[in-house]
Design a protein that fits this description.
- The complex is a heterodimer of chains A (about 120) and B (about 110).
- Chain A is an all-beta fold and about 120 residues long.
- Helix content of chain A is about 0%, strand content about 45%.
- Chain A is globular.
- Chain B has about 110 residues and is mostly beta strands.
- Chain B is about 0% helix and about 60% strand.
- Chain B contains no helices and eleven strands.
- In chain B, the strands form two sheets. In chain B, strands 2, 4, 5, 9, 10 and 11 form a six-stranded mixed sheet that branches. Chain B has a five-stranded antiparallel sheet with strand order 1-3-8-7-6, with no helix packed on it.
- Chain B is globular.
- The chains are: A mainly beta (about 120), B mainly beta (about 110).
- Chains A and B meet through strand 5, strand 9 and strand 10 of A and strand 4, strand 5 and strand 9 of B.
Chain lengths: ~120, ~110
C-alpha cells in the first residue's frame, strides 16, 4: 500500500514569493491533516479536513495561508506571500474513518522542507 | 488547550541497553497516546500507541505505559540497536477533540556501538 505522497520534497524561495505544497493521502483515508514542524520541535496542526470540509483550521494563519481539498482526495497548501519565519517542514498526514473501533492512527508523508531567504 | 511535555531532549545509550522516554500531558480528557519515530529527512512514523482504557502495551522490543492518575506515559525500548537512533515524539489526543494530536518536543535517541 502506498503511503502519503508529498511534493516537492524541498523548496527554496525568496521572501514575499508564493509557494504551494501538494499532498496525496493514503487511498481510502477521508481525513487529511497539514502540520508545520519547526526545527527541533514536534509537528503542529495547521488544518484538518474531513473529506472536502475543513473542520479545524483554527491554527492556520489565514492572512497568508490557504488550503484546499477538492474532491476530497488530494490537497494543496499555499503560502502567499512567504515570510522568513515560514521556513519549516510542512507535513501532510491522513487517517481512516474512526469506524466502530475508533481508530485514530495518523500516517505522515515525508514532508516538504521550505527555506525562505 | 492540551500541553505535552517530553523528557529527556537527548538520550544516549549503549547498544543492548534499554531506553526510556517520558511524557506528561495536561488535559485529563485525553484518551489516545501515540509514539512516533522520525528519522532524518523523513516524516514521523507511528511505532506504538495506547488508549486510556489500557495501562500497558507491548510490541516486541517496544512498550508503552500509561498512568492516567499522574497524567504521564512512557516509551520503553529494550535491547536497543543502532537503527533505533532517531527522534521520538509522544503525542496526546483529547476526547472529542476531532483527532487533533498535540506533540511533545521530541527526544533525540542515539544508540552507540
Amino acid at each position: 500500500e502506498a503511503g502519503v505522497v508529498q511534493s516537492p520534497r524541498y523548496k527554496i524561495i525568496e521572501k514575499k514569493q508564493p509557494v504551494a505544497f501538494w499532498c496525496n493521502p493514503i487511498s481510502g483515508h477521508n481525513t487529511l491533516y497539514w502540520y508545520r514542524q519547526n526545527l527541533g520541535q514536534g509537528p503542529e496542526l495547521l488544518i484538518r479536513y474531513e473529506n472536502e470540509e475543513a473542520v479545524d483550521d483554527s491554527q492556520l494563519p489565514k492572512d497568508r495561508f490557504s488550503a484546499e481539498r477538492l474532491k476530497g482526495v488530494d490537497s494543496t497548501l499555499k503560502i502567499q506571500p512567504a515570510e522568513l519565519g515560514d521556513s519549516a517542514v510542512y507535513l501532510c498526514a491522513s487517517s481512516p474513518d474512526p469506524g466502530t473501533d475508533f481508530t485514530y492512527e495518523q500516517y505522515f508523508g515525508p514532508g516538504t522542507r521550505l527555506t525562505v531567504t | 488547550g492540551e500541553n505535552v511535555e517530553q523528557h529527556p531532549s537527548t538520550l544516549s545509550v549503549q547498544e543492548g541497553d534499554s531506553a526510556v522516554i517520558k511524557c506528561t500531558y495536561s488535559d485529563s480528557a485525553s484518551n489516545y497516546f501515540p509514539w512516533y519515530k522520525q528519522e532524518l529527512g523523513k516524516g514521523p512514523q507511528l511505532i506504538i500507541d495506547i488508549r486510556s482504557n489500557v495501562g500497558e502495551k507491548k510490541d516486541q522490543r517496544i512498550a508503552v505505559t500509561l498512568n492516567k492518575t499522574a497524567k504521564h506515559f512512557s516509551l520503553h525500548i529494550t535491547e536497543t540497536q543502532p537503527e533505533d537512533s532517531a527522534v521520538y515524539f509522544c503525542a496526546a489526543k483529547k476526547t472529542g477533540g476531532g483527532n487533533k494530536l498535540t506533540f511533545g518536543t521530541g527526544t533525540q535517541l542515539k544508540v552507540e556501538l
